[in-house]
Design goal:
Elements: E1 6-14, H1 18-26, E2 38-47, E3 50-59, E4 62-73, E5 78-85, E6 90-101, E7 107-117, H2 122-149, E8 157-165, H3 169-177, H4 182-185, E9 189-198, E10 201-209, E11 215-224, E12 230-236, E13 241-253, E14 256-267, H5 272-276, H6 282-311, E15 315-316, H7 319-337, H8 341-345, E16 348-356, E17 363-364, H9 366-374, E18 383-389, E19 393-396, E20 402-414, E21 420-434, E22 437-447
Parallel strand pairs: 16-22
Antiparallel strand pairs: 1-7, 2-3, 3-4, 4-5, 5-6, 6-7, 8-14, 9-10, 10-11, 11-12, 12-13, 13-14, 15-19, 16-17, 18-20, 19-20, 20-21, 21-22
Organism: Streptomyces fructofermentans
InterPro entries: NTF2-like_dom_sf, Polyketide_cyclase/dehydratase, SnoaL-like, START-like_dom_sf
Protein name: SnoaL-like domain-containing protein
């Protein structure tokens, strides 16, 4: 006998344009900082008006995950959804978002569900109905709030910090995933409790020390993704925030990796003056939150850096090797200053890479690098350009390469004028031995400022 299909409908009236409301429902990647039950959403497929999503959300206090397909009718402001793979006690579920325009310019939002319960058991039906009731009410109320704060200082605010690391990405990811050891590894963590009852779904409770010595308790659900990213959402936030979601990402580079901490927060406007003082504004709260969260994230990434670089087995190069590196850089910079572009490019390996923070794509291969140098604009008549390179830090890696980090300036001096610093940069190289000398396998130049 086929299982009974149950149907529900919930609705709300929102004082916002229907297109704006529909956009909040359409952008599934934003759901975690719009809808309280939503933890994380991954797009698996996107093609025109059809999408396939992996969704993590809470239901009756439990973390559930499923895969859904969506059909978007943008003209009709409707989105149909159907779970491909449901999680017990749900046997099957689908539904539709419908946004209707009202005469006063507002919107009526209807959220429809249809579902079947595992084994058609009454307790399963009751569980699902309770979850739909709780989540639908929370989602519709949150949708209204999100629509009303759009374009204001209370809209979601996203920022990120990053740290370059001379070590394999896997060791950095392991440090970030093993948050249960943060109390012994991080100075700003006073207490931590980590549970992972379901593989790759972590419940993290943590007491964090503020600069003034006070502690704040937060609770988060962390989703550990197959590619090493960790997405999280705080279920218990400090007073200044009504929503805080984030993601840890570790990107591999030829010279190691880059750890990135990304935060999205919604300021709790009602708490601003109570926490920061009578004259404080929402903008002040944003700045305070970014400084606090960004500071703690950067501390965490720097400790991950120390941990991973310690495991990488790197060691400072001996004096004779360091002297040869200084000679290499002195020659390389002089070739560039004297306009010997082809000779300068020859100091890169045949498959060498030259990358800058201002590049859309790195230059790959000695021939490409040489062509780019030849196309570089000359200095204005009467102006001399010099490259100054600070003393590099250098480490030998287990693979035999040498990694260096140094600062470099480009100084321009016009006839009769004082020297002017044209560019300030921070650089990282991977060097490989070439007989008695060196070649650049990979160079990254990060520009200070814009």
């Amino acid at each position: 006998m086929p299982h009974k299909v149950h149907r529900t409908e919930h609705s709300i009236t929102v004082a916002a344009a229907p297109e704006a409301v529909f956009g909040l429902v359409e952008r599934a990647e934003d759901w975690p900082h719009v809808f309280p039950p939503s933890l994380h959403v991954e797009y698996l497929e996107r093609s025109g008006d059809e999408e396939r999503l992996r969704i993590w959300a809470t239901a009756n206090g439990e973390v559930k995950s499923w895969t859904s397909r969506r059909e978007l009718d943008r003209a009709g402001l409707r989105i149909r959804f159907r779970q491909e793979v449901s999680q017990a006690p749900v046997a099957a579920m689908g539904g539709e978002w419908i946004v209707e325009a009202l005469p006063d310019g507002g919107s009526r939002v209807r959220l429809l569900h249809d579902f079947r319960a595992v084994d058609d058991l009454e307790r399963n039906v009751t569980w699902i109905l309770e979850a739909i009731e709780r989540n639908s009410a929370a989602e519709l109320a949150a949708l209204e709030s999100a629509a009303l704060r759009a374009g204001t200082d209370e809209a979601p605010h996203t920022f990120e910090d990053s740290v370059r690391i001379d070590a394999p990405a896997e060791d950095v990811r392991a440090f970030l995933r093993d948050a249960g050891r943060w109390q012994e590894r991080l100075p700003h963590v006073a207490r931590v409790l980590l549970k992972e009852d379901t593989p790759d779904v972590q419940h993290l409770e943590m007491d964090t020390r503020a600069p003034d010595g006070s502690t704040h308790t937060t609770a988060s659900v962390r989703i550990c993704l197959p590619d090493g990213r960790i997405a999280y959402k705080q279920s218990q936030t400090p007073a200044l925030m009504s929503v805080h979601t984030g993601e840890w990402t570790v990107r591999e580079t030829p010279s190691g990796c880059v750890a990135v901490s990304r935060h999205t927060v919604v300021v709790n406007a009602a708490a601003v003056t109570a926490v920061l003082g009578a004259t404080a504004t929402t903008a002040d709260a944003r700045a305070f939150i970014q400084d606090a969260l960004g500071g703690n994230s950067t501390i965490t990434m720097r400790h991950a850096k120390a941990y991973a670089e310690g495991r990488a087995g790197t060691e400072p190069v001996p004096p004779d090797v360091y002297a040869s590196l200084q000679q290499f850089y002195a020659r390389q910079m002089r070739l560039l200053d004297e306009g010997e572009g082809d000779a300068w490019a020859a100091t890169f390996a045949e498959d060498g890479v030259f990358d800058q923070s201002t590049f859309t794509e790195p230059l790959r291969g000695r021939t490409t690098i040489a062509a780019a140098v030849r196309e570089r604009p000359d200095a204005p008549p009467g102006t001399v350009r010099r490259h100054w390179l600070g003393l590099p830090a250098a480490w030998r890696f287990p693979d035999g390469s040498v990694r260096t980090a140094y600062d470099a300036l480009v100084v321009a001096t016009a006839t009769g004028a004082a020297p002017v610093i044209r560019l300030s940069t921070s650089c990282r190289d991977v060097l490989v031995q070439d007989g008695d000398g060196w070649l650049v396998s990979h160079r990254y130049v990060g520009h200070d400022g814009p």
